[in-house]
Amino acid sequence: MQTSLALTTERSLERVLQKIAEVARNVLGARYAALGVIDESGTGLSQFLTAGTAEARKGASGPPPMGTDVLGLLITERRPLRLRTLAPHLGSFLGVPIMVRDRAYGSLYVTEKQGAEEFSETDELLAVVLASQAAIAIENAYAAQALREAQEELVRKEKLAMLGQLAGGVGHELRTPLGVIKNSVYYLNMILPHDEKIRKHLGILDREVANSDRIVTELLDFARVKAPVREAASLVSIVRAALQQVSRPESVTVQLALAESIPAVLIDAHQVGQILLNFLQNAVQAMPDGGRVTVSVGEDRESVFAAVEDTGVGVPPENLAKIFQPLFTTKAKGIGLGLALARDLAEANGGRITVESTVGQGSRFAVHFEKAAHA
Amino acid sequence: MPSARKTILVVDDDPGMADTLTDIFQANQYEVAIAYSGDAAVSMTRRRAYDLVLMDIQLPGINGVQALTAMKAEGLAKHVIMMTAHTRDELVEEAEKRSGFPVLAKPLDLERVLSLATSATGRAGED
Fold first, then answer.
1. Which of A75, A159, B16, B42 could be disulfide-bonded to A180 (CB atoms 3.0-4.6 Å)?
2. Is the pLDDT of residue B16 over 90?
3. What is chain B's alpha carbon radius of gyration, rounded to the nearest angstrom?
4. What is the percent of chain B where pLDDT is above 70?
5. Which domain does B79 fall in, by range?
6. Looking at beta carbons, which residues of chain A come within 8 Å of B107?
């Protein structure tokens, strides 16, 4: 009873599990106790806590490998194991799986029963109880993490929806005054006498209206992520179309590595085109002094991908997670919606974006899609 | 020459937009009238014929597409070109279908507006 009270007051999973290992060693009269939690891949341990071992030795030996040995057996067999001798010179052994319903999260084991040759049936029962305490703690921790992630995603989505509404409203409202300015400039160009300075300033007005309109278009694109219309489409053609749209200085060269024969994917060609155009624009902007953009389309086992690689400034590691958040930007110009929009569009099309970057060397942005099932 | 001037009805609830378009068309030898709502546009076309109606989709009262539908139903306007700041509005497709012209996006490409006006009013080769 005391144990479980103590457990509920402990907040961190690691501390709870450490306590369980210590209690197991004391209650079961063992020389040594250990508790391991299997990681997500199922091949290693995400947590490994011991009691009865000197810290130095624990650090030196590290967690045992997950495999076909006796620890692996606890997981695969999913039942307690009690042995008089684990191996020559290793003494008695009692191990139990940490289970919730039919999922095994790890194992708890003790070795070298003090004052007896082997662990008793009562010990085994106690070990099962302790393991179930550990299981509850682990499951709570996973549930709390899932809840936290769901909340964060919800906040992000709400933020995006609110921004979308605002962006849409502002965008449309700005289009009319911009249109009026553009009309005025056009009119003045028609009627004013030819004067170099006048032409220059009218030219400036015209250009800046066009720049403003581009920003508005970006806002509106962001505001209106429509449900994708997914049809079998070729990534190569989408990449080619996006390349036509991007403007780049002569100092930026383009290299193509397009695997023409890759299978079609079920995507909204317009939306995926927006993603690639964004990658291409970012790549060009990342190379103010010129450089090389490598655009590739290829496939691996499960997916096909389109990637844009530049030899530009790169993204510092601390910014890598942030670049997909709306309103985050490191550019002097821009509102920070491009990659946030790209990520939403990718997800809406059943895809995902990956990014690799080295500061001073360049970045590689790729969008991956599952291969369309063939009939 | 003045008697041969083609007539254009500009329909936009934004006075700045209506004014600037009026000046541009007048400078290009058109005779221009303005309506600030869809209802006003329909009753103006009932009173006299215009060679071209250039009309926004988003208008107070009846919207541009409704006004266009009324004009077409009553045979009031031969050529109607629609424009909008909301290029992805559902009304755009309907406007294109009913007017027979592509819907122009604001800010307007004025060269294109003038060339469409020229061909719609049959003024080709005049300037």
1. B16
2. yes
3. 13
4. 94
5. 2-120
6. 175, 178-179, 181-183, 209, 213
